[in-house]
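Lecture 7 notes: from sequence to structure.

We start with a single chain of 306 residues. Read the sequence below before looking at the structure.
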Amino acid sequence: MPVRVGTSGWNYPQGRGTWNGVFYPAKRTRGFDELAYYAEHFDTVEVNSTFYRVPPAAHVEQWRQRTPPSFGFSVKLNQKFTHPELYAARGGASDWHVTPGDVDEFRIAIDPLAAAGRLLALLVQFPPSFQCGTESLDYVGWLADAFSAYPLAVELRHRSWSDRGADTAARLAAHGAAWVQIDEPKFAGSIEQSLAWEQHGSSLVYVRLHGRNAAAWWTHEQADDRYDYLYRPDELRPFADAARRAATGGRRVLMYLNNHFSAKAVANAAVLKSQLGQLVTGEYPRQIVERYPELAGIVATSGLPL
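Now the structure, written as tokens:
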């Protein structure tokens, strides 16, 4: 399928924004599998847990086994490669000194997906503080070469990259990497992007919708509060139209909703699939439709309480 739509992550068990009792049952039957249940509704997911910890390959192999052969994964590169400050706060090195050994460790971890043809993209997300410059360009190039065996999607968020947009796009395209398109609240140095995805040099278009909760984006009680935003259908429509144009031009499009608070990403992903003319598969609990009425007429409901 040239356009795939999913969410960023599938496991949100705690806090005010939990998916339990909204998309997943509040009370689980023995053997209930969140990932398998999720895969009944979507054909792709973006894995963010790999950003915090490199998983054992056996654990990644279980993800493959718990999903159908048509299901694809995008995996976020570990923070040691992109966020040295965060990595240092968790006990790692405080500089950009990553080694071929670090690369090998991560490649071994995700090999079960890559070997099975189930790895759709490797997401390389840099922080807003990562600005365009000679050293930054060289480092992005080094990473792209180190992980050249995989489809790459590079998320750059500072305006310095779009100020040199043609050069940035050309350098990424030379490595076969997609320039990630993001939707999020804007700040003074925010990157500038358009919906003209069909003009991208890469054969892959990678899109992340983080929500537009500007009030809680930088100041919030809990980290999940910034993702407490539900896109209106008319806010999603331009993304559906842009994805359709890009796919018509022969590009593969991956779209992930990261506004995960209380499964709002699930609701928006289902609406986006419908706008793309795709079959919205799986049964949805009655409660999620009651909470998000825009799903009525789009999803099939089980009629059973959670």
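The longest strand covers residues 119-125. Keep this in mind for problem set 3.
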